[in-house]
Amino acid sequence: MLPRYTDTVPTTRTRRFPIVKKSLPLLSAFVALAAALAWLAAPMRGDEKKPFPPFGKIDRIDPAFDKLIAPDAYLENLADGYGWAEGPIWIKDGGYLLNSDTIGNTMFKWKEGEGKSVFLHPSGCLHDCDDIKEPGSNGMTVDSEGRLVFCDHGNRRVARLEKDGKTRTTLADKYEGKRFNSPNDLVYKSNGDLYFTDPPYGLSRKSHKEGEPEFPGMEMDYCGVYRLSKAGKVTLLTKEMTKPNGIAFSPDEKTLYVSNSDPEKAVWMAFDVKDDGTLGRGRVFYDATEGAKKKLLGLPDGMKIDKDGNLFGAGPGGVFVLSPEGKLLGMIATGVATSNCNWGDDGSVLYITADHNLTRIKTKTKGAGWK
Fold first, then answer.
1. Residue-range domain boundaries for the chain
2. How far is CA 361 from the centre of its chain?
3. Among 140, 215, 236, 319, which is disulfide-ready with 87 (CB 3.0 to 4.6 Å)?
């Protein structure tokens, strides 16, 4: 028989329930520990209370920016450890994001609740890659059949990954018999034509020495913007830009935006698109050369357009948010060199590749083409 409490504990007022009293510090510590564990476990439960650490800051320049990015929105750091993170693309059939590590020659997959994992390695150069600075894949998109189409730096081509996840098909690797420099970024037009840029960054060597060519192996004396027609014909659209990089269409496809990652002319260009798909007049859409000369990290790079024609483009200091008229509305200031961005989830989340990191921010808009 268990002893009654009054059998062992005096009943005076000042000595009542001494066992409970002595246990209070331990109980308090236990409660505090449980609360701390519950707080730490919040991200694993999918709570909305900042499950990922904040990254960078938001600079609001024009009141119109608040219609795109809520006042309480912040940039989340989802994953890190990339050599140079690039080319994010949301895969709707599966609900995950792919992005390139151009230096690590790897495509990575990121999925909510699962985190970062290797999707494809090598993602670019297959042979004799040791001296190439950026041998991996770069910009990525999907075609009308949901197949992954990507810029293959190391193999100097535009390629497609077939549905088996292994077979790679070359879509374009030459123009007029000469090999491309290293296709960088790409975008589909609604008619199935593929537009892409061809700067030389994939030719850069780790062992480059002063006085040697910066980009050895170039077979062309220019950096072009091209169109690969649905029928497979390659057309040079312009060779007037020194370092064409990011590329995107306006929602009505009447304007093609191309960024120029040259510190001497760090601009986004806007080209009129003719009825036959070639380019007409080009104009400077936004000039960020001043920021580049101030040594802000990054240059005009990958970009995406929202449903209303606002441009979200990586540039000196982070992601520039520009109105359809070319007015700077605000900045998603990452604080590091930023390469690219793309829409994901329901089309309202902007994923941003920033140096060694994959980040995202919830917006109040949606990407062009998203329902």
1. 54-362
2. 11
3. 140
Residue 10 — φ and ψ, nearest 5°?
Answer: -60, 155
The order of strands in the sheet holding 186-188 is: 186-188, 194-198, 224-228, 234-238
pLDDT digit string, tens, across residues 140-169: 999 999 999 999 999 999 999 999 999 999
pLDDT score recorded for residue 26: 47
216-263: pLDDT as tens digits: 999 999 999 999 999 999 999 999 999 999 999 999 999 999 999 999
CA distance linking residue 368 with residue 250, whole number of Å = 8
Whether the pLDDT of residue 81 is over 90: the answer is yes
Q: Return the exposure string of 194-208: e unless at least 16 CB atoms fall within 10 Å of the residue's CB, then b.
A: bbbbbbbbbbbeeee
Q: Which of 160, 162, 187 is nearest to 369 (CA)?
A: 187
Burial grade of 193 (CB within 10 A; 0-12, 13-18, 19 or more): middle
